[in-house]
Amino acid sequence: MSDIFFHTLIMAMTPVVELRGAIPYGLAQGLNPWVTYFAAVVGNMVPVPFIMIFIRRIFFWLRQRSKWLGDRVDWLVARAEKKSALVHRYALVGLVILVAIPLPGTGAWTGALVAALMDIRLRKSFPAVFLGVLIAGVIVTAICGGVASLF
After folding, report:
1. Alpha-carbon span 105 to 98, nearest angstrom
2. What is the dihedral of CA 120, 123, 127, 132, to 10 degrees?
3. Burial degree of 29 (CB within 10 A; 0-12, 13-18, 19+)
4. Distances in Å between the alpha carbon of 147 and those of 27, 43, 87, 139, 150?
5. DSSP state, 120?
6. What mean pLDDT is reported for the chain?
7. How far is CA 78 from CA 72, 83, 119, 128, 147, in A?
8. In a 3-state reduction of DSSP, which class is residue 30?
9. Predicted pLDDT of residue 76
10. How far apart are CA 66 and CA 135, in angstroms?
11. HSE on the CB side for 142, CA within 13 Å?
12. What is the reported pLDDT for 151?
């Protein structure tokens, strides 16, 4: 595979950028829209189970290291709790919607964090996040004009 494919995949793994930045990058670099979508979705999903399984332990460890790190963790948790209102109200459908909306502060990383903090089991939350990522990928690809080149 090409370097562009791997750049797109890695870009989609990073927080904040996720597939919202990876899909436009892949398309702008001339990567086929289907390949771009695939790379972005796979890349975006790679960190999700690790976040869901390990984030509480990581936060505990960071809080033990320093007040500064603890303050950053508390800020991140408070931010995730604000986003969790949708999930509280609509359960797993809310988690899908939270991940599917391709706006800053949403996405797979936030969805995984919210699911972990709400103690939603991996076997239920992972498919919900995955469906949200699939939907977000379609939306971002369509906005970037990639849909026209699919047909």
Report:
1. 9
2. 20
3. middle
4. 11, 20, 30, 9, 5
5. -
6. 90
7. 10, 9, 16, 22, 37
8. coil
9. 86
10. 39
11. 7
12. 57
pTM score, two decimals? 0.88
User: What does the block give as tokens for 39?
Assistant: 């790379």
3-state secondary structure 62-91: HHHHCHHHHHHHHHHHHHHHHHHHHHHHHH
CA distance 130 to 122: 11
Please measure the distance between the N-terminal and C-terminal CA atoms of the chain and give it in whole angstroms: 23
- What whole-number distance in Å separates Cα of residue 127 and Cα of residue 119? 15
**Using CA atoms, how far apart are residues 76 and 83, in angstroms rounded to an integer?**
11
Q: pLDDT tens, 85-136?
A: 777 788 889 999 999 998 888 899 999 999 999 999 999 999 999 999 999 9
| Cα gap 69→51, rounded to integer Å | 18
